[in-house]
## 1
Amino acid sequence: MWRKLLRVIKWLLVAGLLAAIVLLIVAPLFVYGRFNAEQPVAELWFERRGPYEYTAHVATGDLCSYRTYDISGDQWQLDARFIKWKGFATLLGLESRYRLDRLSGRYSEARGQNARKPPRAHDLAPALFIDLLAGGRTVGASGFLVDTIFGSSVYLDIDTTRRYRVYKTEDALIAREVPRPAASTTGPMTIVIDKACGARGGIVARAARTLNDFAARHLK
């Protein structure tokens, strides 16, 4: 009886270890969002600090919490990496993925960018323990599952009276702008809730992210 119990425990440990290894390998794919439809991936608004100097407030993920970054220039730019599957992966129903990579400032005129100090860039990509898809490249016929890995960028003029929403489409980023609500010191306060916060995806996605975050912090 004890031998059978030990055998069961041993196989459970082996299965758990294999599951952890699989999750660690596929973890990078779960930091890439799906882009089969047009969906919001980021929201930005800006505060002016000086000539060609701004503080960018950027929300990603569920668009509920903002991080701030200092950028230079008169335009903002957001970069993302896209992955398109092919062949067997497509037959399995794997959906193409995207990942936000970088926020930076830029100048609308090239001579202005050359004459002034370089615009600053900020990394938005999460830390990965194993990044199987590092680097942008076209895989083409030589790739088994991946058709191509490519980058897409979107940029617009900075207007502190506007709020910008960035969307991912089938193969690119697009941006739309709306008036930024003006602050009011009189009358009742109105809070508009137009999105759900706190959603983190399915069980596998959450487990993969948790394992990747642990490994990135403690095993590198």
## 2
Amino acid sequence: MAKKQQRFNIKNTTPHTLPMARLAEYLRKLSTVLGNEDHVHFLRMDEGSASAVIEVDEEIEPVVVSRTKSAAIGEGPKEAVQAYGSLRESLEEDGLTADLEQDTGEVITKFVTPRQTEQEAFGPLWQEGTLDGLLTRIEGVDETIHVTLLSEGYRRVAETNRDIGVQLGPRFYRTISKGKWYRNVEGKWELQKFVIRGIEDLEDTSLPEIVARLRAIPDNDLKTLEDPIGEMLRIRRGEE
């Protein structure tokens, strides 16, 4: 059975300075990230920077690479995502970085913590905006009312005052401002705080009803389309 090799390169350390117990912990977490344990084998540590040589059965390598790249962006099996984050945290604790590369030299992923990237962070910045979501919590014992929305799969916590809190009450578990944004060192904008200054219920109208309304507009191209809903979905996805 043909074999491929990968290298787990731990920067700023050597096999002579990296404690064996710590190396074993790194490799255990990396093994969970890679998965497919019957097809992945540890071969040796090379001299120079601590570089663990790993052997992977050729036919399974694409699966291992895909699983690792998915874990790096928080997708895929839960155990792989958690192990990836845990390995990165362990490296951060030791002041180290690492990468995993194929025998071609192509880097599969870099275990680099946000604080170790060179990009400068910006913010926080306040910007007017809206936040759509499912209202799941309203609470507060003083003038500040805390609100939780389920929006795009994430829980968003916002603040508002008592008057708006009272208006939100009847909208509990219904779909319904000013946001504080921060650009992290990875270049991604994160919503740190959201203050609700007004509310507006989203119209509960089905897609077929919306299409019917659009077709009623004079000189509308939707009248000639065989599948207007499919066309709208393609436009939304950016497809030609």
## 3
Amino acid sequence: MRLARYGSKGSELPGVLDDEGKLYALAGLGGDLKDEGLSETGLAKVRTIAAGSLPLVAGNPRFGPPVAGIGKIIGVGLNYRDHAQECGLELPAEPTLFLKATSALAGPFDPLVIPRGAQSVDWEIELGVVIGTPGIYIDQDTAMEHIAGYCVGIDFSERDFQFKRGGQGFKGKSADSFAPLGPWLVTRDAIPDPHQLTLALSVNDVERQRGTTADMIFSVPKLVAYASEFMSLQAGDVILTGTPAGVGMGQDPKVYLRPGDLVSATIKGLGTQLHRVVAA
């Protein structure tokens, strides 16, 4: 099942897509794609309703992040073997976690805004894992039961802000528009194995990243369980699970985004994002 949120920024409404890609409104059912709406019970309620019996959404509305009320965005650094290699770093013994500000959230086709003074804005395509059932100290064997579904994510980063502005990578990860999600949330039951997904990202039609989630160092259930050791995970929280090789910082010479560039990011079965780069 594919779930989306559509409409102007800050006023998005929930919807469901059928197999042909037609979008139907869920707003009449009450609630949103947040809290109980992301639980097993909430998702089961939507599954029982035939999309064709719902109001068809007319036109070509903007898509926002597919989940409402996101409390935190947890990033995972160096979780692909080939990415660690291109950075010249040893494989981590434990997952490296960081946070991105929720004000960085954006829709899957919104512009990417280059912050003032930025010279090194980089791209990182990532599998996004959305929590549906809250928990703390989650057992790895049951961690998948806490997942509502998956989406395409991009962890845009300003490398100078990240490494040269007094430490703390949070600064380079949190500019407005640096955390686009979507175009939709694909529920867990529709993705039998999240470790068999192909990821690809292009800039101006030049492919820069191509990898597979099979190359992740730490698996999805491991990441969910590990993160829950340090903080409770709430419905709507998003874990960005790392990126494969091919980031701009790893190119020789380095390549970074400039106004006018077009970024395209796709994960098999989860859809495609498109972002035109603009100046602040």
